[in-house]
Known about the structure:
Arc Repressor Mutant, subunit A, two-stranded antiparallel sheet, 3 helices, 42% helix, 5% strand
Amino acid sequence: xxxxxxxxxxxxxxxxxxxxxxxxxxxxxxxxxxxxxxxxxxxxxxxxxxxxxxxxxxxxxxxxxxxxxxxxx
Length: 73
């Protein structure tokens, strides 16, 4: 699976927030855990359906969102 395709959107799931591979695991939750110092290994233990590439996809998603250019009027 392509790393970019691991992040999915469904308006009927998790309020339309980006999730990992259609599961009810939100990208924001993974990023928050990483930001709070939870290790990748701990996250993978707590969420056995996740794969290491899913976590990389969350980080890539965040990096791309942070790099969006905004027009200022």
